[in-house]
């Protein structure tokens, strides 16, 4: 890597890290939708961003969510529920970045109010499954584990970090093709399943409340696994940081080369002086033997 490229990396790192917001601040937001970093991932991000060869460009500690697809327009004037869907303009009906404690009573009513929020009074349960349901505006239950996007200083340091991610269980991680050395750190512990569809002013549930409770229970278990793996990754990154700090404490490469060169010359001179002394002893011995 050229000196200019390395300088560019450090400039970007300073700009990004200095703009991070670690808590709710009405006067300051970062570029994330929330405007600040998820609390569960703060310690891990601190370790990564202290490392001289890495910094985080975006992050999510993990979340459970209910998402309603966006739509653009009706595509069949004879069927007002047939719509053209889009990945843009969707609605997050519910989002949590922490495990959800579950009450012991009235679970079915509670789960509907929790997941559908102010739309919960529109929810209907039934066995109807209309034809062409994939053309409807679907609502998904999601659990998404940790995801981190990280820039590395070089391709070598990117590969080192990727190897560490694999070792701790982030098997779905990879290096993004780019002029910069970008990594996505993620696992496969996710849930992404349709649970309802929109029909006019009604939300038609495809599953019963018991299944929604099951999904939330599974998500809480995945939250626990997600946090455990995050801690293992944090410990692994801390070890990498310690090694990097120790390496930085060493003398610069050029200084070390010059020191070793001087030490080598001094050793050679010492050996030469020792050899001269030995040669003088031999000559003196020869002279003594001749005189005898």
UniProtKB/TrEMBL annotation:
Task: Spell out the family assignment given in the record's similarity comment.
Answer: Belongs to the TYW3 family.
Q: Which UniProt keywords apply?
A: Methyltransferase, S-adenosyl-L-methionine, Transferase, tRNA processing
Q: Which InterPro entries match?
A: tRNA_yW-synthesising, tRNA_yW-synthesising-like_sf
What is the organism of origin for this protein? Answer: Mucor lusitanicus CBS 277.49
Q: What are the GO BP annotations of this UniProt entry?
A: methylation; tRNA processing
Mark out the compositionally biased spans (Basic and acidic residues).
251-270
Report the domain of life of the source organism. Answer: Eukaryota
Instruction: Name the SUPFAM superfamilies on file.
Output: SSo0622-like
- State what this protein does: S-adenosyl-L-methionine-dependent methyltransferase that acts as a component of the wybutosine biosynthesis pathway. Wybutosine is a hyper modified guanosine with a tricyclic base found at the 3'-position adjacent to the anticodon of eukaryotic phenylalanine tRNA.
Q: Recorded GO terms, molecular function? A: methyltransferase activity
Enzyme Commission designation: 2.1.1.282
Q: For the tRNA wybutosine-synthesizing protein domain, which residue ranges apply?
A: 12-238
User: What reaction does this enzyme carry out catalytically?
Assistant: 4-demethyl-7-[(3S)-3-amino-3-carboxypropyl]wyosine(37) in tRNA(Phe) + S-adenosyl-L-methionine = 7-[(3S)-3-amino-3-carboxypropyl]wyosine(37) in tRNA(Phe) + S-adenosyl-L-homocysteine + H(+)
- The protein's name is tRNA wybutosine-synthesizing protein 3
Would the keyword tRNA processing be found if you checked this record's keyword annotation? yes
Q: What class of enzyme is it?
A: transferase
UniProt-annotated stretches for the region Disordered: 247-277
């Amino acid at each position: 890597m050229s000196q200019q490229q390395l300088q560019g990396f450090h400039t970007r790192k300073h700009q990004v890290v200095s703009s991070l917001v670690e808590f709710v601040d009405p006067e300051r937001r970062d570029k994330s939708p929330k405007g600040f970093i998820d609390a569960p991932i703060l310690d891990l991000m601190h370790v990564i961003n202290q490392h001289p060869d890495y910094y985080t460009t975006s992050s999510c500690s993990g979340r459970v969510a209910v998402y309603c697809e966006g739509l653009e327009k009706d595509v069949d004037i004879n069927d007002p529920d047939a719509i053209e869907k889009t990945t843009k303009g969707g609605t997050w009906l519910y989002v949590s970045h922490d495990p959800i404690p579950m009450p012991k009573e009235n679970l079915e009513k509670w789960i509907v109010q929790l997941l559908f929020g102010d739309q919960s009074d529109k929810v209907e349960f039934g066995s109807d499954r209309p034809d062409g349901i994939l053309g409807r505006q679907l609502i998904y239950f999601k659990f998404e584990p940790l995801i981190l996007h990280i820039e590395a200083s070089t391709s070598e340091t990117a590969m080192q970090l990727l190897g560490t991610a694999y070792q701790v269980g982030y098997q779905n991680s990879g290096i993004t093709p780019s002029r910069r050395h970008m990594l996505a750190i993620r696992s496969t512990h996710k849930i992404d399943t349709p649970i309802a569809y929109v029909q006019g002013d009604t939300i038609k549930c495809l599953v019963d409340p018991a299944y929604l409770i099951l999904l939330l229970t599974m998500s809480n278990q995945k939250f626990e696994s997600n946090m455990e793996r995050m801690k293992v990754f944090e410990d692994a990154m801390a070890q990498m940081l310690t090694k990097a700090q120790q390496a930085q404490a060493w003398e610069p490469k050029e200084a070390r080369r010059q020191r070793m060169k001087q030490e080598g010359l001094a050793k050679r001179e010492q050996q030469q002086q020792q050899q001269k002394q030995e040669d003088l002893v031999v000559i003196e011995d020869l002279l003594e033997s001749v005189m005898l």
